TrEMBL record:
The keyword tRNA processing does not apply. One of its GO terms (biological process) is fatty acid beta-oxidation. Keywords: NAD, Oxidoreductase. Residues 10-177 form the 3-hydroxyacyl-CoA dehydrogenase NAD binding domain. It comes from the Bacteria. Signal peptide: none annotated. This is 3-hydroxyacyl-CoA dehydrogenase NAD-binding. InterPro entries: 3-OHacyl-CoA_DH (IPR022694), 3-OHacyl-CoA_DH_NAD-bd (IPR006176), 3HC_DH_C (IPR006108), 6-PGluconate_DH-like_C_sf (IPR008927), 6PGD_dom2 (IPR013328), NAD(P)-bd_dom_sf (IPR036291). GO terms for molecular function: 3-hydroxybutyryl-CoA dehydrogenase activity; NAD+ binding. NAD(+) binds at residues 14-19, 37, 85, 90, 112, 136, 270. Residues 180-278 form the 3-hydroxyacyl-CoA dehydrogenase C-terminal domain. The record marks 133 as: Important for catalytic activity. It comes from Caulobacter sp. (strain K31).
Amino acid sequence: MTIDRERQPVAVLGAGLMGAGIAKVFAAKGYPVFLFDRDLDTATSATRQINGAIAHVDGGRDVDAAGSLAEAVADAAFVFESVSEKLDVKRRIFSALAECARHDAVLASNTSAIPITQIAEGLPCEARIVGSHWWNPADVVPLVEVVPGIATDAHHVEAMMQLLISVGKKAVRIDRDIPGFVGNRLQFALWREAQSLVANGVCDAETLDEIVKSSFGPRLSVLGPMENADLIGLDLTLDIMRVILPDIDNSPEPGRLLTSRVAGQHLGFKTGAGFREWTPASIQACRKRLASHLDAYFSASGTGTVGHD
């Protein structure tokens, strides 16, 4: 499958934060987009917000809220699933898509961690299912990990790569379908050690965040881990790793700090406390700081953001 000159219809299933962001990207580039959510009010509200946000974008096109799954995918050449991170839920959706989507449609999951092979295994449409892992916020962060399952046909993978490139995304193909793919494995390795350091009294959460933000964090945007190791020298890298690795947390289960906070309903922004304490004002300030930083960084790097073409 190749991308025609005409913008082919796109369906997005799930109108939450990620689904709405994905729909916004395609609509801003002139693709017909159908957004579906099991809660029609959620889909309608998200559609209204998206259409208002891209109203000034040249070549943009309004998103349509679909009243049913079948309606959303009836004409779609590409379908993006962006629902809860639960294997059984995703498999039910793809099983339904095998019945009601176009027989040639590319079916993508925006899962953050579940292997694509597990989602697709045994389904009639498994050859057409591919991972398409976007990063939050989807309309700002350019990278998308494209992940074939063991049964995914290569031409569907290539079609997804072409589609993402056509809307300005930096599509990267992952060679092996493993839990978390690449980006989240790196991110959660850092998070595990960060939580361990706080749990073991090495530092508090505020200090840990400040160390990351004011030391190696800014460097990561221009120098990847492998580049950095080459820069300092692999001999020095080896010496440091021999000292540090034996003492780094390697637990295969979530740590006690995280599990105890969740058990106590300290869930972060949504409850006003997580690893740190949050007020409405500090939450708003944090979101504003993040949005401003990402917009400035990606605009300067030439990738741009939706609504800033």
